[in-house]
Amino acid sequence: MKFKLTDSEKKWVWYDVGNSAFTLLVCTIIPIYFNTLAENAGISETDYLAYFGYATSASTLLVALMGPTLGTLSDISGLRKKLFSVMVLIGAAGCIILSFISSWLWFLLLFVIAKSAYSVSLVIYDSMLGDVTSPERMDEVSSYGYGLGYIGSCAPFILSLIPVILAMQGMLSQAVAMPIAFIIVAVWWVGFSVPLWKDYRQIHFVDSASHPVKTGAKNLAKVFKELWHEKKILFFLIAFFCYIDGVYTIIDMATAYGQSLGLDTTMLLIALLVTQIVAFPSAILLGKLSRSVRIEIIIGICIAAYLGISVYAIFLNEIYEFWILAVCVGLFQGTIQALSRSYYAKIIPLEKSGEYFGVYDIFGKGAAFTGTLLVSIVTQATDNQNYGVGSLAVMFALGIAFFILAVRCKDKTAAERSSVDSPSGERVEIAAASGDVSDE
Q1: Are 129 and 142 in contact (CB under 8 A)?
Q2: H/E stretch holding 224
Q3: Which of 170, 257, 261, 417 has its CA 20 to 30 A from that of 292?
Q4: 256 pLDDT exceeds 80?
Q5: pTM for the complete prediction?
Q6: pLDDT one-digit tens code per residue, 93-128
Q7: Contact 67, 365 (CB under 8 A)
Q8: Residues 6 or more apart from 245 whose CB is under 8 A from it?
Q9: What is the rounded (10 degree) CA torsion for 188, 102, 61, 43?
Q10: CATH number assigned to the domain covering 7-201+216-422
Q11: What is the residue extent of each domain of the chain?
């Protein structure tokens, strides 16, 4: 049977199309621009990769601290869309301002702010999935989001690449090229956020509180206590922490890695564009495969593939090898992100999706912090970029081990999930969210 997105699902998917433009900017043009600023300041190629990695780590650490609290606040009736909107606007404004900065240090500081706002917007966006679709449709809807996001990001990327290439050829000054490129991305990002802003309706929520920040902190603490009794969720989060480590690190540092190897900039950008194009059909087709193949099997295959990719990176030193790496990453990048998101959404209580996706973000962004930090430290310690990226293989191996443990845990029923043990040993019911819980 042909799968067709509903109106609310389409509007949710459009944000993946919009925000992916910034993701691609972070992976490509931002490292190139920073490389120019670093060279002008006399920074070596090894230190350039390390400093960019440290900035990325700082951003992910900041989001790991902010995301859970804001995610918990977004569960309160009426706050989810407001918080989401604020983060999108901060990120887009930061994106534009970045292009006018000439100091490498100030550039990295603003990069941390813009990337953090972008990442927090994704925490809240992911928690919206349960409001726009049903559990049985989550795998394919999530896959469409990532798939269309990858192909949709190609348009603003190509448009922003034109002035950058002209600047490389000396036909346009960098002071003009970079603002054009960054503004294109920011406008695209905000533009595709509008449908979700206009029509999103928060179906699953908790009642408003007189002191939302205090209440949010208490609810977040409660979620961490619940996780001890939710072994399936706990083991999955540990597995996710380990394997998404490498995924996010490869996404964030791919161009910086290629440039540090001295590979041609134009060919690097085209190779990464190929990654986006390959990721589009791959994410959607593997999402459809989840109808007939258990999602756990597909996720396991993706983790194993990334383990092989990280080992392959140890021996990479030619442009054609980087192309092979780009295609392999494209085959599994969207799928592992999409199905991890939908798998998690199906095993958590929907009325507290903001809280739980806040925790999800701690493990995801904490992993990205660990990964970029690991690559930076190993690169500087060995003076070899290949060993730095290859060190991620350890995290993928741990990811497979903990994912197997999560799969073997029994799924809890709705009744079992709706209650936890009180300190006195009595059973205490967790109030379900009030409001209309029907599909839009």
Answers
A1: yes
A2: helix 212-227
A3: 417
A4: no
A5: 0.70
A6: 999 999 899 888 999 999 999 999 998 898 889 888
A7: yes
A8: 367, 368, 370, 371, 374, 392, 395, 399
A9: 130
A10: 1.20.1250.20
A11: 7-201+216-422
